[in-house]
């Protein structure tokens, strides 16, 4: 397939490299010319339990010469609209757009720009840490589950086959809302706590006070889920969070990676989204509000941080 992967972060590089390695025509789409040139020249390096290898993946800035069949969006939630508006200038009229991003609201933004029938959404439990430009540590494997779009399903079925052919565990489902909320609750339990404490995923639930905060944040999110009548793809949300922590124990959560690089995080699309949804329903969410405010405070004070006594 002809595939454009928008966003050369950990997940973007991982998916682009493995799809390219399995025989697909893949281009990474970036907004930084110097980084795109580096990746085009040096390739994408993936390291992990299966060893280390480099895959030659071209990276482009701006318009693509040939519209791709599929555009997979992996940018941060704060960049979704800008990236989508850029992609709309080079996407073909039949290009399918897939979001595998974290948080709420990404699918709706893409639908506004590309139309409902051209947008698919899903979640991935793959874990990765971006070590430097084009260099990813694959820190955990998991399913990639995609909802069928309301338009032609043939292209999304071909993409799922391509993902499985690339070594991912991918499948299609009819309802995507429960998947997005299911992934959101996992991120609610892990990401902000990792960003604040600077702990790896597996270390967070081992510490009793943090495990309690995790449980409280997840329970607030569950109150929203129950009020909205959303059915989650698992029975026990807190246990699911614990299982993900164990499965990706050595991984640095994406929000922690952003904090370590002094970048804007996705906390508003994760814990902040729970606060907004809860407020609209008249439900209190003080733990998620506190976590979101602390992370935003960290973002706003990168230049003030004390590094030593």
Q: What would you say about this model in short?
A:
This protein has 309 residues and is α/β, with parallel strands linked by helices.
Give the secondary structure arrangement, pairings included.
Layout: E1 2-6, H1 10-21, E2 25-30, H2 33-42, E3 44-48, E4 51-55, E5 59-61, E6 70-73, H3 80-87, E7 96-99, H4 106-114, E8 119-124, E9 127-132, E10 135-140, E11 143-147, H5 154-165, E12 169-173, H6 177-197, H7 208-228, H8 237-247, H9 254-260, H10 271-281, H11 286-299
Parallel strand pairs: 1-2, 1-6, 2-5, 3-10, 6-7, 7-8, 11-12
Antiparallel strand pairs: 3-4, 8-11, 9-10
Describe this structure in words.
- Helix 1 (10-21) links the parallel strand 1 (2-6) and strand 2.
- 44% of the residues lie in helices and 19% in strands.
- The strands form 2 sheets. An 8-stranded mixed beta sheet has the order 5-2-1-6-7-8-11-12, with helices on both faces. A 4-stranded mixed beta sheet has the order 4-3-10-9.
- It has helices at 10-21, 33-42, 80-87, 106-114, 154-165, 177-197, 208-228, 237-247, 254-260, 271-281, 286-299, and strands spanning 2-6, 25-30, 44-48, 51-55, 59-61, 70-73, 96-99, 119-124, 127-132, 135-140, 143-147, 169-173.
- The longest helix is centred in the middle third of the chain and has 21 residues, at 177-197.
- It is built from 11 helices and 12 strands.
- By secondary structure, it is an alpha/beta fold.
- The chain folds into 2 domains: 2-174, 3-Layer(aba) Sandwich (Rossmann fold); 178-303, N-(1-d-carboxylethyl)-l-norvaline Dehydrogenase, domain 2, CATH 1.10.1040.
């Amino acid at each position: 397939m002809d595939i454009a992967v928008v966003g050369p972060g950990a997940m973007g590089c991982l998916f682009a490299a493995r799809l390219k390695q399995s025989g697909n025509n893949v281009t990474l789409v970036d907004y930084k010319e110097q980084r795109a040139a580096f990746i085009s020249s040096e390739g994408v390096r993936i390291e992990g339990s299966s060893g280390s290898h480099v895959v030659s993946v071209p990276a482009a800035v701006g318009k693509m010469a040939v519209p791709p069949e599929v555009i997979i969006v992996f940018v941060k939630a704060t960049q979704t609209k800008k990236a989508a508006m850029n992609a709309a200038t080079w996407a073909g009229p039949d290009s399918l757009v897939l979001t595998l991003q974290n948080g709420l609201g990404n699918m709706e933004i893409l639908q506004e720009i590309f139309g409902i029938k051209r947008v698919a959404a899903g979640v991935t439990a793959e874990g990765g840490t971006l070590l430097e430009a084009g260099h990813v540590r694959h820190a955990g494997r998991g399913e990639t589950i995609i909802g069928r779009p309301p338009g032609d399903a043939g292209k999304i079925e071909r993409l799922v086959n391509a993902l499985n052919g690339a070594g991912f565990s991918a499948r299609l489902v009819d309802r995507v809302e429960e998947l997005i909320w299911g992934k959101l609750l996992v991120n609610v339990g892990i990401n902000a706590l990792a960003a604040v404490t600077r702990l790896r995923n597996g270390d967070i639930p081992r510490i009793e006070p943090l495990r309690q905060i995790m449980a409280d944040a997840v329970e607030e999110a569950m109150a929203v889920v129950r009020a909205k009548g959303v059915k989650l793809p698992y029975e026990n949300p807190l246990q699911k969070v614990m299982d993900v922590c164990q499965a990706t124990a050595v991984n640095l959560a994406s929000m922690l990676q952003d904090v370590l690089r002094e970048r804007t995080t996705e906390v508003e699309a994760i814990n902040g989204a729970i606060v907004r949804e809860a407020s609209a329903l008249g439900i209190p969410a003080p733990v998620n509000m506190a976590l979101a405010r602390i992370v935003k405070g960290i973002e706003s004070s990168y230049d003030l941080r004390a590094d030593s006594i």
